[in-house]
Amino acid sequence: MTTTFNEGFLWGGATAANQFEGAYDQDGKGLSIQDLMPRGISAPPSEEPTPENLKLVGIDFYNRYAEDIALFAEMGFKTFRFSIAWSRIFPNGDDESPNEEGLAFYDRVLDELEKHGIEPLVTISHYETPLNLARTYNGWTDRRLIGFYERYSKVLFERYGHRVKYWLTFNEINAIIHAPLMAGGILTPKEELSKQELYQAIHHELVASARVTRMAHEMMPGSQVGCMILAMPTYPLTPDPQDVLEALHTEQGNYAFGDIHCRGQYPGYFLRTLREAGVELEITDQDREDLKNTVDFVSFSYYMSVCATADPAKNVKGEGNIMGGMPNPTLEASEWGWQIDPVGLRIVLNDYWDRWQKPLFIVENGLGAKDQLVEADGVKTVEDDYRIAYLDKHLVQVGEAIQDGVDVLGYTTWGCIDLVSASTAQMSKRYGFIYVDRNDDGTGSLERYRKKSFDWYKEVIATNGGSLGS
């Protein structure tokens, strides 16, 4: 295809500290909620770290970062999205002073990125609330977490502000509705959590995000701060107006987070949701003022679309859909039941651009699959044509959206190197261009091998998207 991507389009990959760093107990790091979640979101947390929790070792990026970043550079990455582990900087989350060894690690990571000319894209909080904040305060249900998060963010801005331009405040902030422990550090079991507690926690995160956005603009002139939303377009199952309305209401549950970040106040439909749920938020005048600090761009993850219906008899949740939703009968699904919908990405891009008129950044997209390592001519690789096809079709739709007039900053494919799945805590659910020799039982050498998709993505970046669709 003729490339439609901007000259400075930020091609790259995305990761999260808790899924690939490992070194959970090295150099003064405290425990995070992820260190007690050996089965992802599918089971309650354990009391202590257990050997079957693959995230404790991850893929050992903590000790292999230079090797991995060199591989990203070989592919031609323009940007690399990673998160900072809060408990590596503040081991308990509420400490008075930061852990210098933790700060020094990210200095080294940034050194390597600079050496290779790769722009860092940093997520401040990516599903890794310090465990002490969950146990002592029940996570974001407690207003005091706003102050702890501000202190943590200030340290990051002071230390790395001259080196990092692009920041994301919270990963998939809307996921807290469906995964309150993972996204909000809330230990109360989901089925026991009241709507009052849940929405108050959401409010605290939104205020914290807005305050930190203001702080970033004050401390780092020229910095760009984005919110991050889990995008999952919802189509009506039928043309029945009731199904259309049901789909709209589902979409509004996600829109609300972007509306608040981009417009600086709660939208009317969301206030109605709160009223009808009997929720009365504790909102101060200062909170309302803080929320007016809006983001510079909107980033989002996109993996699938779903359908909605008002007919209870047809309303059956699709396999693997964390955020709910029915399967679309016109679409195929991945091995984990995620519906594959490249056109949905173009729809999201147009929808968000029309709604918010803010630059958009696709910071997660990819295909989880059970890759098989093979050897050909003495070289180990993975023939992952299925991943190439998936990513190619999605990126063609990004090009179409750009032609539609959407301002797209960049694209970072999820799990550019194999890492531990957030939803299932498996290694076998692989997303990367780089195969990591580690298995679900914890065995493996941790050696890295380039997959077929490695060279494919290298060509995509080298041609600025010109090789897509061929």
From TrEMBL:
InterPro entries: GH, GH_1_N_CS, Glyco_hydro_1, Glyco_hydro_1_AS. This is Glycoside hydrolase family 1 protein. The keyword Nucleotidyltransferase does not apply. GO terms for molecular function: beta-glucosidase activity. It comes from the Bacteria. Belongs to the glycosyl hydrolase 1 family. Keywords: Glycosidase, Hydrolase. GO terms for biological process: carbohydrate catabolic process. GO terms for cellular component: cytosol. The keyword Zinc does not apply. It comes from Kocuria coralli. Gene3D superfamilies: Glycosidases (3.20.20.80). The active site is at E364. Pfam families: Glyco_hydro_1. PANTHER family: 6-PHOSPHO-BETA-GLUCOSIDASE ASCB-RELATED, GLYCOSYL HYDROLASE.
